[in-house]
Write a sequence for this structure.
């Protein structure tokens, strides 16, 4: 009983131990290798790190729910780009011309609505056709990217609105706007998984779909809601990011799905569905951003960054497997 | 009565849906552009699809065995860069087998992790996608690789040569497809691949070595990737580190279009070849009628979902899923 | 329990030691590059930059690479501001998206130098200087090279040209294409640009685009590519299709392009050295920190190179 509890705790907090390890490593390595005048664990450096992890992190929170559900969404990068284009483009739409600075609110709502719809479309196809979510979203990853290009050909879509930039750069209680949005997202979705019927059903469906169906849970609508939610979050991530940059390249968001999935898996969520936690994902997101910032801090080049991140993903998967296999065996005895 | 007739039509359409779609596309493009069906154009499409096609052959094995391989794009960059670099250092005769061995080593690593250690193939190959890209950059120092003396070597034979008027890449693609097609359809090993993908647990109980079969599938995939790298290197006689970037998804799209289920246990080499050709002809047809390249993304999206949906509909006997 | 204590002690120790880090008194210059490793130009630029920084005892460089990702580049600018570097050099992944980040550096009192590919005009208030090639002029020079060749051949009234442009959305690609498209009708009003497709700075992609062009058009007299890497891809396609007599003009002369010119298969390009590019950017930053006057648009010269005058240039190292 006792040792099982310890194992489970280690398994659950593995990602946080890894984060502590990264902090120590980069602080010490930074003393010898870095040119920075500040320490790695400088408070403002850490705040910046949280802000930088927000765009990927917000999407990763949604991906956690999708993966707990036993699905996957590869189209989030394209949805991110579409929402960004709609946000910036709608700032100068004629119908909003009388709104003054309130156009920002209207544009954000339009962008979020578009993301939600694109997500829901994926969910609807998965639900009604019964085609595997991997294939549906692999297709829409291409298709939505095509839509991105159709907006403005191969040219970037730009609209630099300084009011919007000022809002994005504002710091309430010393914390960046992006971090606030990220934090709120984590909190709200965590509450959903803990305290709502929808959240509990998501775990039940991912754990054993047939049993869930037999228990009278309507699997399809739940999946639809989760896909709409991740579409909304991909758009929210775009709002947070493009508010501060004001220009969308048609290639933006490519490979985001891979980074997001990496973060979620590092956070302990299983691809097979049924288990995973929002807090673990938060850890995964922070761990990856720490790794990136840290490797940059000690002067590693792109090739090393790619190599290290790839290998760590595999090692984490291996360790996770070892812990779980042992746990399962002990349960049998 | 009407119901059974509809069932029959559905079955025919479902089983040959991909062929029907293929013929329809060819017709549309042929009407839109008179050049489309010219021999030169057809040959040019098959030749430029050969690289993607060779990779798709290997991935078909991996997918049928119930796994994924997202690392083939970065692995192909690796093979291309390595063989170009070694060409000038060792000469083509030694460079080619060395490159094959190194690529097989990478494939074997993935096969070991997925087959013997039973790690999830999506995450392992995702990690390898990033790691192998890093490896390639480290190997080349980030530089483009070019063969110094381009006219004084027979290395260009694989990518640019011809035998009896047919380009060598096409011949290699057909030969490899025939060989792997027979391996998959007619040998005990092929049956094991289907068995492992169809139901891995049952396969283990019936004495089929799951781990070794999966391992071998990744070796086959790596062999195909090495061949694609060879074709690529020989075709352009020089290359950059990102040459294969993003190909993993196109390859997967071709394999899925060909009807291999991602759950494993189904798919054939012939269907994959058709999937590859469909993608190649869409890309080429759109270029010929002067539409921007990104229209092909939208079309691919629609036909992938329709093709798989049709396939599933036939299996369950109705269009819409119930729950 | 024990391990936890150990960790806490370790963290506490490292936190305490943090501020005791040695502070460099020299010029600390941070650079964030576009995408090292995507082609040899950027890789050579990076090593030249590092070499130039190491050769100068007063300079310590923080070299970062955005990997082509706008988000990562913005994060890197913020990190450089955070680290308190004395000057920032940026090779923008997107000429508009980085403007707010550049403004933050400006507001923090850090001078910003843009290198290689300029940012949009809205951001000019926040940068001290742009150092790099004039990509619009490069595009128009390529148009002139091509037009002059057509005049030599006597086909300036009927020639048809296709264009293979760089990665969609990148300032360098857009500027070169604009320069070429604007200049060509001025010098050769009867030459027709029949189609433009992107080759993504990628030789293989460019080869495929050219194959389709060759099938589609029976008459192609000239090909303009956004750089020589793509130009050689197009040349490969023409070579294997057996189409001769096409005038290939590129930009950023790569060694493969130089060799193809020596063999007489490739007509001309624009000579642009990544070493000059890197050294000019570093020197601009140093001059600003030393209080010297620097021009706002600090272009280094990128001359025309053709088969006729290639002896005057050394073979590019990349």
């Amino acid at each position: 009983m006792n040792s099982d509890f310890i194992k489970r705790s280690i398994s659950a907090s593995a990602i946080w131990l890894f984060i502590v390890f990264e902090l120590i490593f980069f602080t010490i390595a930074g003393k010898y290798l870095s040119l920075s005048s500040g320490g790695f664990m400088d408070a403002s450096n850490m705040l910046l790190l949280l802000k930088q992890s927000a765009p990927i992190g917000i999407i990763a929170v949604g991906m956690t729910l999708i993966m707990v559900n036993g699905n996957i969404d590869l189209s989030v990068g394209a949805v991110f780009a579409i929402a960004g284009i709609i946000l910036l483009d709608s700032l100068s739409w004629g119908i909003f011309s009388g709104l003054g600075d309130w156009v920002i609110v209207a544009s954000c709502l339009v962008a979020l609505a578009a993301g939600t719809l694109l997500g829901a479309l994926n969910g609807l196809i998965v639900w009604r056709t019964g085609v595997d979510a991997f294939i549906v979203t692999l297709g829409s990853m291409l298709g939505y990217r095509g839509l991105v290009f159709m907006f403005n050909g191969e040219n970037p879509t730009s609209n630099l609105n300084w009011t919007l930039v000022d809002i994005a750069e504002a710091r309430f209680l010393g914390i960046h706007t992006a971090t606030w949005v990220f934090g709120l997202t984590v909190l709200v979705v965590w509450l959903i998984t803990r305290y709502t019927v929808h959240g509990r059903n998501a775990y039940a469906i991912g754990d054993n779909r047939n049993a869930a169906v037999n228990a009278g849970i309507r699997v399809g609508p739940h999946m639809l809601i989760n896909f709409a939610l991740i579409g909304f979050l991909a758009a929210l991530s775009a709002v947070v990011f493009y508010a501060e940059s004001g220009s969308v390249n048609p290639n933006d968001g490519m490979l985001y799905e891979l980074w997001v999935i990496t973060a979620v898996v590092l956070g302990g969520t299983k691809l097979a569905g049924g288990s995973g936690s929002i807090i673990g994902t938060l850890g995964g997101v922070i761990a990856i951003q720490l790794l990136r910032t840290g490797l940059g801090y000690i002067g590693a080049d792109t090739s090393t960054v790619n190599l290290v991140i790839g290998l760590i993903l595999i090692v984490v998967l291996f360790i996770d497997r070892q812990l779980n296999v042992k746990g399962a065996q002990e349960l049998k005895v | 009565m009407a119901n059974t007739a509809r069932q029959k039509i559905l079955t025919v359409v479902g089983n040959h849906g991909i062929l029907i779609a293929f013929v329809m596309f060819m017709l549309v493009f042929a009407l839109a552009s008179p050049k489309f069906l010219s021999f030169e154009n057809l040959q040019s499409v098959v030749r430029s699809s050969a690289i993607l096609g060779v990779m798709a052959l290997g991935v078909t094995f991996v997918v049928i065995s119930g796994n994924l391989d997202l690392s083939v794009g970065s692995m192909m960059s690796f093979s291309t860069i390595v063989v170009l670099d070694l060409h000038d250092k060792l000469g083509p005769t030694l460079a080619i087998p060395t490159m094959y061995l190194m690529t097989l080593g990478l494939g074997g690593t993935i096969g070991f992790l997925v087959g013997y250690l039973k790690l999830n193939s999506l995450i392992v190959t995702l990690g390898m996608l990033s790691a192998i890209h890093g490896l390639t950059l480290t190997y080349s120092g980030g530089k483009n690789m070019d063969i110094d003396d381009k006219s004084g070597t027979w290395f260009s034979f694989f990518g640019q040569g011809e035998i009896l008027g047919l380009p060598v890449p096409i011949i290699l693609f057909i030969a490899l497809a025939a060989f792997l097609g027979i391996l998959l359809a007619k040998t005990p090993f092929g049956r094991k691949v289907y068995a492992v993908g169809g139901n891995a647990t049952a396969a283990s109980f019936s004495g089929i070595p799951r781990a070794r079969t999966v391992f071998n599938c990744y070796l086959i995939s790596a062999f195909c990737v090495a061949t694609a790298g060879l074709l690529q290197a020989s075709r352009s006689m020089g290359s950059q580190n990102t040459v294969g970037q993003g190909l993993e998804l196109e390859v997967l799209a071709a394999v899925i279009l060909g009807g291999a289920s991602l759950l494993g246990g189904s798919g054939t080499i012939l269907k994959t070849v058709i999937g590859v050709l469909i993608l190649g002809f869409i890309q080429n047809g759109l270029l010929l009628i002067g539409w921007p390249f990104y229209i092909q993304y939208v079309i691919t999206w629609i036909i992938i979902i329709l093709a798989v949906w049709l396939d599933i509909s036939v299996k369950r006997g109705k269009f819409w899923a119930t729950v | 329990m024990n391990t936890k204590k150990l960790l806490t002690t370790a963290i506490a120790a490292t936190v305490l030691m943090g501020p005791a880090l040695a502070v460099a008194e020299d010029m600390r210059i941070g650079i964030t590059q576009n995408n090292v490793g995507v082609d040899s130009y950027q890789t050579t630029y990076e090593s030249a930059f590092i070499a130039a920084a190491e050769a100068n005892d007063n300079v310590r460089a923080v070299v970062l690479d955005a990997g082509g990702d706008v988000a990562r580049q913005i994060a890197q600018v913020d990190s450089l501001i955070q680290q308190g570097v004395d000057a920032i050099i940026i090779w923008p992944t997107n000429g508009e998206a980085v403007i707010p980040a550049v403004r933050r550096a400006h507001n923090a009192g850090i001078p910003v130098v843009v290198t290689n590919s300029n940012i949009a005009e809205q951001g000019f208030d926040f940068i001290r200087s742009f150092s790099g090639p004039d990509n619009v002029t490069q595009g128009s020079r390529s148009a002139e090279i091509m037009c002059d060749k057509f005049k030599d051949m006597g086909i300036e009234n009927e020639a048809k040209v296709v264009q293979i442009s760089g990665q969609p959305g990148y300032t360098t690609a857009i500027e070169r294409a604009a320069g070429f498209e604007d200049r060509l009708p001025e010098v050769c009003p009867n030459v027709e640009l029949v189609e433009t497709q992107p080759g993504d700075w990628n030789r293989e992609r460019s080869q495929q685009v050219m194959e389709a062009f060759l099938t589609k058009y029976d008459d192609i007299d000239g090909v303009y590519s956004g750089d020589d890497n793509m130009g050689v891809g197009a040349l490969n396609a023409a070579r294997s299709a057996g189409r001769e007599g096409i005038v290939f003009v590129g930009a950023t002369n790569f060694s493969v392009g130089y060799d193809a010119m020596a063999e007489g298969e490739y007509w001309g390009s624009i000579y642009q050295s990544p070493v000059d590019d890197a050294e000019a950017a570093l020197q601009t930053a140093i001059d600003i920190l030393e209080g010297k006057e620097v021009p706002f648009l600090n272009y280094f010269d990128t001359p025309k190179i053709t088969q006729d005058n290639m002896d005057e240039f050394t073979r590019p190292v990349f």
In short: Chain A touches chain B through 50 residues (CB under 8 Å). The first strand of chain A starts at residue 157 and ends at 158. Strands of chain A lie at 157-158, 171-172, 175-176, 247-248.
